[in-house]
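Residues pack. One example:


***
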Amino acid sequence: MSISRLGTANMYDRTINNINRQQNELASQMEHTSAGMRVIRPSDDPVAAAQAERARNRLERIASDQRGLDAQKATIEYAESTLGEINDALQEFRSLLVQAGNGAYNQVQRDTLVEQLTSLREQISKYANRTDSNGLPLFRGLDTKTGLPFPNDEEGIQSGQPNSGEFHIANSLNGELAFFSGKTGNGVLEIEPYSHAAGTPNQGKAHADIGVIKDPAVAAAVTTPIEITFQDNAGVLEYTTDGGATWSPYKEGAAISVAGMDVVIKGQPVAGDGFTIKPSTTISTFEALDRAIAAVRDNANPDGSTAFGTLSHGITKSLSELDIALNRVSTVRGLAGDLLNQAERMGNTLLAREEQVEAQRVAAEQYDSEGMVRAISQMQTQQTAVSAALQSYASIQKLSLLNYIS
């Protein structure tokens, strides 16, 4: 039978190792408790660490979606405010156009208005061509030939970017709808003056309104021009709407029913004057502005007086086309408001999702209230144990056989 001997030095080493292990454990508990974290390193709890890492990745994606949504929202807000400026400019243009129809104005005064109208037209074009912070057109209609978003030939028009994800809105507005979907006349039919006798615009002072649709089906069925023609029959001015098969006496201001529409003609036409009714065509806002400017600028007679008939007709027609243009701008502005509402709802969803994922991350790696109390209790117990071990070791270390040998 062998006898094992345990030396004092070996016993001291084992005691020191145990004390070091307890101190390391105490340091770890203090680190976790002070941070309020149950999992600081993956080795603390591999499963919980993996859950927390996945939660952090989701939080990063949510933050990325929010940044993208904020950028798109800022672009749409800028585009919406630009449409407001366009609306104001169109309203001012319309007011000047009404002013140009004042019978007390001469052509010199109207030429001054033409300069103002032209300036407003240029402003509206610049507003429509605005770009966002990335240099992209707010209304997405880049023409690769001219580099301008909205030339009058309508080439290269794009309708705008659609939604591209759960938390994305369109990053532009529909410029085609805003500026290139207008209609001539009243939107269904348009009326143009003409003169059979002279082959030139009407010689009298008559002008027509834009017409009021009474029978939409009949009006929509018109595919070829219909003419209202005037003649002098023994001193009585008459008109026909069926090519001369039937003539009726003309009475200024009385509605003429033709093509499912009531047309009111004011002023005094002369024999040979007439009006052509034909289907409305698509017209851009810029073309409508150009026609309005031309109506004010080009209706001067050779003697310097104004051809009031064609001027009044041109202004009446242009006012209707401007009203349609204003409606288009208002429609797209309303769509911008809807996009901003969508962005607001998406932002709220992202915020709620962020709170949910953050709660999952916290649950995976942080103490709850009960766990925190338990961790503090364990730390205090460990502190007591380490303190007792140190004190015991200090006392034992002082012992020596020499103390008992005299």
Notes: Helices lie at 8-35, 46-100, 107-128, 175-179, 216-220, 285-297, 308-365, 369-397. The mean pLDDT is 81.
